[in-house]
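Q: What does the assembled structure look like for these inputs?
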Amino acid sequence: MGEVVLRSENINKHFGITHAVQNVSLSFEKGEIHGLIGENGSGKSTYCNMLCGIYSISSGRFLLDGQELKVKTQVDANRSGVSIIVQETGTLSGLTVAENIFLGNESRFMHGGIKNTAAMNKEAQDLLDKYGFGRIKAPVMIDHYNFEDRKLVEIVKATYFNPKVVVVDETTTALNQSGREALFQHMNRIRNEGNTVIFISHNLSEVIEHTDRISILRDGELIDTVKSSEVTTDDLKRLMVGRELGGRYYRTDFGEPISDEVVLTVENVTVPGEIEDVSIQLHRGEILGIGGLSECGMHEVGKAIFGASYGRKGKVTLSNGTAVNSIPKAIKHSIAYASKDRDNEAVIIADSIRDNICLPSLNDLSTGKILKHSKLDKFAQENADRISVKMTGISQYVSNLSGGNKQKVVLARWLGKNSDILVLDSPTRGIDVKVKADIYALMGELKKQGKSIIMISEEIPELLGMADRILVMKDGKVNGEYVRNPKLGEEDLIAKMI
Amino acid sequence: MPEQSTLEKKKKNPTWLWNLTPLEKNNLTWLRNLTPLFGMIIIIAVFAFLTEGNIILPKNLKLMLSQAYVMMIASMGVFFIMTAGGLDFSQGSILGLSSIIFCWVSKTNILLAILAAIVTGAAMGAINGLFHVKFKIASFIVTICTMYLFRGLCEYFTTNGPIAASIQVVALNLTWLKLLLTGVVLLGGFLAFRYTRLGADIRAIGAGETAARYSGSRPDLTKFLIYVAAGAITGFASFINVVKVGAITGTAGSQLETQIMLALVLGGLPVSGGAKARFSNIVVGTITYCVLAVSLPMVLPDSATQQLVRGITFLIVVALTIDRKSLRVIK
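A:
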């Protein structure tokens, strides 16, 4: 056992009703690269964001060298010796490379209120040269460099001051081979200097190869910490996703035949930069699951079917031959869509529950172009009640509702529209267990009524538990297809995703 | 026993507006909706007091009304635009140019002239809508540019002096006619806003354009149409404007755009538009504005002081009545 540099004690994070990180106690040693893995939403990024002052801690504490770490911002964290390279771009456009590197730390170049830009640029360039990124020039605007070079600048920014702990969050996905090697080289250098790297990645073989120990999170809880030399990728997969299947809120039926009647055909649909040549047939009364890693293009498939994609090529047709190529047309022909981006695309949060429920059905609700308000109220109330939205009344604004109740409003509007084809993207994202169960029950009921559902999901248990058929996507293409089967395991799907 | 302790707390802390829970505040939205109305009543009361009842004399009421017709009609178009989340600074220039066209055509036929003014206004609105929707330029930038463009045309056409309308037009300067036309236009707008899909779409687009698109609204088309409609409505208002003044100079209608937007905000319209827009904002706002505009000169004869007090009054009224929560969602 090496000397512990950083320890977390019972760290918790709540986002409203969601318990994202639950009592995580973990120790990191001096001079180690410590992998942190888990499914999407398992809490690994949230945990690190709390460490680095990006999120506040709900309860618990971090101890760095035995001292409690109290940081409110990323700059605070840097001063205490903790830094992070984030998943998304962490550089600010409109600033030069040097200004980005020394962001929040400009005072060292200030003399009597005047910034010595030349000195700043020189020091930044020296650092870039030292890191082997000499082709990046310090005085140039960051915007002139591509995404990958910006990531390299971030590596310098996060590590030049010799922090005791460096978090590398999913950075490798943005880098090509040479960039990755440079990153691993610097991770090793940091370790050899006696400091610590926390490495978050979905690429399990990469994690095993480059780390000393690995901790696994699942649903916000710490499952185990293992030695990298003693595990295989299969072991890790099992630890990551190995929860009991067939839990009580999923469907329990297997082997029920699906109708041969095709209600929706997607033919060779391509959306530039998102999906390529996707073809799908959806049957009557079928729940079709689409899974994959979050960037695999599956979310765009939902938009493409709903006519919401920009620059879509290929055809989406209904059984009667009607082509669906715009949102109003999709809605008119009984297609519903619940976006993953609930607050921006699925509901109008700055509007009432009534307006949100009525909006897609206004054409049906008007008698000769005239809207009757009593009719709208009744319609909204009935549909909100059908799925028991928790609210003070239909005039309440959606912005005041919890995530689960917002999703219920989304479902209520499509129940009201009586759509035959429902495209549900991440229907249970950020939703607590109880509402989750309600949503699964509703899906089962709709299936019984002969409605067809496309469920796009990043949660593998949900796909296995609810879908009649599962398509797995990778890099914008369909990479595998599975029929509902009790023997089907999460490993099978993961194999086609990665 | 937790229930009892909250009860005791309630007793110790009486419920005031500032220590309500979000839920309780939500239940009080009706009160917020009435704030602009109270503002209007207070302003009328204050000025009635300051002018010793002068402002409610028939001749002054008539003066106020004469200012209100054009503004009320033109502000209806801007109301639609602002509800959908946009702004429009070009309405004053649109009024000026439509008025000039009206004057020219009125010498041939007055009905034809009204039609020509409406078409001119609609065409100018279409230019605004096209640049905003098709070329994706923020509405306030587009309309500030077209404000100068249309004003430039007004000044060009009036280089040789004001343009007079046909003599017959002046004969139409009848209070009942102006009242009737204003009423008809407002009623039409009200019905469209409240009882058709258009109104629901406009509010949804202002509250959240992307989500409205995903709900089946057509934001681009709708926004284009309301810019055209706003232009057409102001084109119609130019008829009443000419009836009132008889001849048009290059500066006709200037400042109208800012007056309209101030009036709407005074009337309680959130600057960012959206679901909280009420049609009554137009009426309440225009009346409040006109009362201020007519009463101030009576109380303060000096025009410099008038400007000063006008500015301060607007700031105070807006600060008291504006809905800050909805401001935060401006994109």
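Chain A has a mean pLDDT of 88.
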